[in-house]
Amino acid sequence: MTEIIFNEDTKRFRDSILKIGGAERLMLCYQCGTCTNDCPVAKRIEEFRPRNIARLAMFGQKQQLFSSDLLWLCAGCYTCYEHCPQKVHVSEIISALRRLAFIEGKIHPTIKSLLTALSRYGYIMEIGEFENELREEENLPPAPEPAINEISTIMEKTGTLKKVGGN
Amino acid sequence: MEGTNFLKYAFFVGCTTLGRLPGYEKSTRKLAATLGIELVDMPNSSCCGTTYMEGVDELTALSLAARNICIAEDMGLNILTICNGCTETLTKTNKILKENPEKLKKVNEILKDTGREFKGTVEIKHLLRILKEDYGLENLKKAIVKPYKSLKVSTHYGCHLLRPSDVMSYDDPNQPTSMDEIIEITGAKSVQYPGKMDCCGGPIMGIREDVTWAMGLEKIEVVNKYAQALVTSCPFCFISYERAQLMIDNQKKLPIIHLPQILGLSLGLSEEDIGLRDNKIDSSFLKNNLEARK
Ligand code: SF4
Ligand code: SF4
Questions:
Q1: How many angstroms from the chain centroid is the CA of residue B20?
Q2: What is the ipTM of this complex?
Q3: Which of B25, B39, B57 has the most A C-beta neighbours within 10 Å, making it the best mutation to test the interface with A?
Q4: What's the fold here for domain A8-103?
Q5: Which terminal CB of chain B, N or C, has fewer other CB atoms within 10 Å?
């Protein structure tokens, strides 16, 4: 286990996690390890331990949580959500941590590129003329035109457009 | 369709199927037409908003999803989805905005400049759920014209169709049975296997590909012992299981089949109708298992 450091910042960080919807039950974690035991990613990646993520979050260890790809390795399968005896929902803790990271502009490049595509094309990939020609060959109607202006209006208003590098 | 109330839905296809899986979309459209279910395309609809966006900015995710729901509200139709991810994103948004006036206010404030407003008048259901709850298994049974003779398959539900269970409120998050019930109506046997609710690993394909393939191949290896194919209800799961196998040469390939494809053949549709040739692992053996037309 990694070293835990306490100070005002770590307490403040812990409190900011607890304020996010879905993460309110963090402090009820009693470190039983059910989440790590049942997590399909933990089974294959040594450093990905949902129980340890809960522990680091309880102690507000932002440095350790944000310093690697850790938060972006969760597959979002909700096994920990369904199985936690305390309903801590590590999947939601991870979501809360990702949201806090994103406020600081931190996001995994792959996820960023999907969201950039969303802001540009209205889809997580380009579905344009070429794709629509293929669709036609398969006797499928053209894909809906996603009203990009509406998408960028939304993303501009929430402040995400800039952060994902859209324009 | 005789004995069935007229069913009509706004069809939310979803990015991955629109751009990558014509066979899934085709078989869904043909299946619906055969059963007398009307699917109406959703003008100006976009990506659902994605769990990725939800993971980084909730308000944006809610607003993007709500915009799509608003389109169905204007059409006066409930939404039919075929992707687990879209199903979860739209269902969660619908639930949050119907139950939480504070979030609703914020989202409608964002939507105002697009000329839209979330009203909360429609429901979101995956094709599988519509077949079970709206169409009805009895009616489906009546529509089977070419049952399978001796086909053994296994089902993969994927995570987001059923989880989080307090949001999705459908089937059982650990021991689901609804897809198996539907499969058995076609005369095929749905074989149970250990690890049925194990995740496909799709969401981290772009982050740790090796882990996705490992997760996929573990299930393939197990199912290969029991069944001739794996049936999926989500484009992400489908792609994960196909690609994981295509990465490895010397392995017994397990065909991955979309739910409406396996149903389609037993409803009398052709291989062409269900886009079976779009599947990258040869699945032509399916038709040899059909009984002659009833
Ligand atoms: S989050 Fe839940 S399952 Fe995981 S260690 Fe804490 S109490 Fe146990
Ligand atoms: S949701 Fe994430 S942390 Fe939880 S079990 Fe699944 S992969 Fe592991």
A1: 14
A2: 0.95
A3: B57
A4: Fumarate Reductase Iron-sulfur Protein; Chain B, domain 2 (1.10.1060)
A5: C
